[in-house]
Amino acid sequence: MIILGFESSCDETGVAAVCTERGLLAHALHTQIAMHQEYGGVVPELASRDHIRRVVPLTRQVLQEAGLNMSDIGAVAYTAGPGLAGALLVGASVAQSFAWSRHLPAIAIHHLEGHLLSPMLADPRPDFPFVALLVSGGHTQLMRVDGVGRYELLGETLDDAAGEAFDKSAKLMGLGYPGGPALARLAEQGDAARFDLPRPMLHSGDLDFSFSGLKTAVLTRVKAAEQNGGLDDPTRADLAAATQAAIVEVLAAKSIRALKQTGLRRLVVAGGVGANQLLRARLAAALKPLKAQAYFPPLSLCTDNGAMIAFAAAERVKAGLVTLDPDAHGFTVRPRWDLAEIA
User: Fold this and answer.
1) Is the separation of the CB atoms in 100 and 27 below 8 Å?
2) Is 23 labeled as ligand-binding?
3) What is the pLDDT of residue 341?
4) pLDDT value at position 51?
5) Which of 19, 25, 109, 212 is deepest in the core (most CB within 10 A)?
């Protein structure tokens, strides 16, 4: 079966075609970064309107690149949540309309499940069970994954997520949008040892996270620099390096603790922060003594994309977790949706 997937939860419009037997056939993605840079962050109304402009051309592109006709599609999948309500409605309504017009089943997919399973699009593909570190823009969670739809929450952030800590710290330093990647690039030029920043909950003994205190510490350093002549380029680079080092140390330490507590030897890292090169290097080094292995999605699939949504739907179909009813086309979206609810 070939599944056409739509992702529109925030500021990326993604469309992809995945075959349950052959895997990913084609995907296309449009990012709204350039549009939102003027405002320093995502403007929900503008995001929704841009999804409307992009989704049909991207669908045509995917079908053409995959060599498919509309008659080849066996089911349609879409992100039903969590995310921005208006943005979610664009992808959901287009997917449901496509499915209704072709008398196909439509499959509602949890955005974080898409991220969670996206490393399985890479080679080598991780086997179940594994520990998953979900680090997308608004979420930081550790999950035990025993199979598709079999998820156990081990720990999560109590306030700011890691992605938010990157973005908010970057904004405090006067870096552009999106802040996380800008901070990571600047950190390459800095000395992380210059600033002693906190590692919140590093030694808490549990698997929960907290990054709001780190953001406050960054704000304190920025204000101190401004009172002493301003935040010059070397200071900004050093502070960026120290901020990144603090976030990465906490993420890596908690991930290793999760592996030890569960006795598992496979760690899957998914979400936009999973593209961070320091995090990848730190985890690779920390896993060697445990004889464990880390799995990451391809860099092109770390951000939101349609491939992960179509793939999650395909895995749910193969696991028998989806009722493929071509007549069920009533739908809603869920801007707030706990991943544990679908397990």
Assistant:
1) no
2) no
3) 82
4) 98
5) 109
Which CATH class, in words, describes the domain spanning 2-117+302-341? alpha beta
DSSP letter for 173, please: T
Would the annotation count 138 as a binding residue? yes
**Interatomic CA distance for residues 162 and 246, integer angstroms:** 10
Does the annotation place 180 within a ligand binding site?
A: yes
Tell me if 304 is assigned to a ligand binding site. yes
42 annotated to a ligand binding site: no
CB atoms within 10 A of CB 266: 19
Q: What residue spans in the chain does CATH classification 3.30.420.40 cover?
A: 2-117+302-341, 128-296
295-313 confidence digits (pLDDT tens):
999 888 999 999 999 999 9
Binding residue per annotation — 228?
A: no
Give SS3 for 47: helix
In three-state secondary structure terms, 249 is helix
The answer to whether the annotation marks 191 as part of a ligand binding site is no
Closest CA to 110 of 142, 75, 134, 144: 134
For residue 329, the model assigns a pLDDT of 85
pTM for this prediction: 0.94
128-296 belongs to which homologous superfamily?
ATPase, nucleotide binding domain (3.30.420.40)
Q: What type of residue sits at position 135?
A: V
Of 258, 248, 244, 316, nearest to 141 by C-alpha is 258
Give the pLDDT score at 343: 59
Question: Facing residues of 14 across strands?
Answer: 7, 29
Q: Does residue 134 have a known ligand-binding role?
A: yes
222 annotated binding-site participant: no
Length of the chain: 343
210 is in an annotated binding site: no
115 annotated among ligand-binding-site residues:
yes
Q: Which residue has tokens 């904004």? A: 171
> What number is the average pLDDT over the span 199-209?
96
